[in-house]
Write a structure and sequence with these properties.
The chain is of the alpha+beta class. The protein is built from 7 helices and 7 strands; from the N terminus they run βββααββββααααα.
Length: 356
């Protein structure tokens, strides 16, 4: 694993407040606008690349959901913002993908920024900047590119399942937030599987190698990024639930309270896995330390066995003429026998002490 850190470049934009400048990585995404206009008895779906086609649905006594993909096309977003009388600071935040989750209330709409997380390529966690604007009879959502978690919601709108077609724009806002939060549980499940797999790898110490610390560090960074993306949404949903905004009906507040409970559950799971990943690093260091202790123990035992043998060999390796044993018949074999007996005795002693 190449852990060489890429050099980052930091550049201050220093633009006037309200300047609409895209700040993201997807610079070549074409504008794709999905319009869902519905009432209790009818649902119309339109996909287009022309932002002007969204103007015809305003004020038609139906609820309209307009989903815009492609934040890099700031001219289209500015055109739509002018039609719906969105504040310049709102438009600035829509195209700034570095915004943390937040809630802002204006005279004729409410603006929510949050992160949409979903799984791509089996276990890769994808992060999407999502902005939501809810007005009296419309909901606008803005995201960087194609791919979201709203397929079930679209199917419910088309087939008139549940109560969504008979509710207003405030319930549609709740349904969108609920779809995002429900998908957090799927992401958390994938994250939990990664943590548990790594934990199992560590317990099988023969499979842990030099790549393990990098895997732990990568997983820790993933958890921290997820925490930064999800944690602030607790406060956002709590504020929406407590607000007395004119477009949010009283019966919708009970759904928002349930949504708040869900996001707290997600946050607690993230904190749990955060603690687990820290303990995995401690566990890895403990395993490495134990391995080192085992190696040092073996080397110490070997050195201890050979100390007396080396001592005897050293004595009889001295070049003195008056050493009585030098002229002893079979002295060489007697000395080897004594050394062998010492060797066996020390092995038995270490075995009884359970050092071997």
């Amino acid at each position: 694993m190449n852990l060489k850190k890429k050099k980052k470049s930091y550049k201050a934009s220093n633009l006037p407040p309200g300047t609409i400048a895209y700040r993201g990585k997807k610079q070549s995404v074409a504008t794709n606008i999905e319009i869902i206009n519905y009432s209790k008895d009818k649902c119309t779906i339109l996909n287009t690349g022309a932002v002007q086609e969204a103007f015809n649905f305003k004020g038609n006594e139906h609820v309209t959901w307009i989903n815009i993909n492609g934040l890099n096309n700031v001219n289209d977003i500015e055109t739509l913002g002018l039609h719906y009388k969105l504040h310049p600071l709102t438009l600035e935040d829509i195209v700034n993908t570095g915004q943390r989750p937040k809630l802002e209330e204006f005279e004729n709409y409410m603006f929510v920024v949050f992160k949409m997380l979903f799984i791509k390529n089996d276990d890769e966690i994808h992060y999407e900047h999502l902005s939501l604007i809810v007005g009296e009879d419309y909901v606008l959502t803005f995201q960087e590119a194609d791919g979201d978690v709203f397929d079930d919601l679209r199917e419910r709108l088309q087939s008139a399942k549940g109560r969504i077609r008979s509710q207003g724009s405030d319930y549609l806002m709740y349904a969108i937030l609920d779809a995002v939060v429900d998908n957090y549980f799927t992401v958390i499940e994938v994250l939990g599987d990664k943590v548990e797999d790594l934990e199992g790898l560590l317990f099988q110490s023969n499979k842990a190698d030099d790549r393990t610390p990098g895997q732990i560090q990568q997983l820790k960074q993933e958890i921290l990024r997820m925490r930064r993306s999800i944690y602030p949404l607790r406060e956002v949903i709590s504020r929406i639930e407590k607000t007395d905004f004119a477009f949010i009906e009283e019966k919708t507040h009970s759904y928002l309270r349930d949504l708040h409970d869900h996001i707290i559950q997600v946050s607690e799971s993230i904190d749990l896995y955060r603690e687990m990943i820290w303990s995995l690093m401690d566990m890895y260091m403990t395993i490495i330390s134990n391995k080192m202790n085992e190696i040092m123990k073996v080397l110490t035992i070997i050195a201890t066995i050979f100390i007396p043998l080396t001592f005897i060999a050293g004595i009889y390796g001295m070049n003195f003429k008056n050493m009585p044993e030098l002229n002893t018949d079979n002295g060489y074999f007697i000395l080897l026998g004594v050394m062998f007996i010492l060797f066996i005795f020390m092995l038995i002693y270490f075995r009884r002490k359970r050092w071997l």
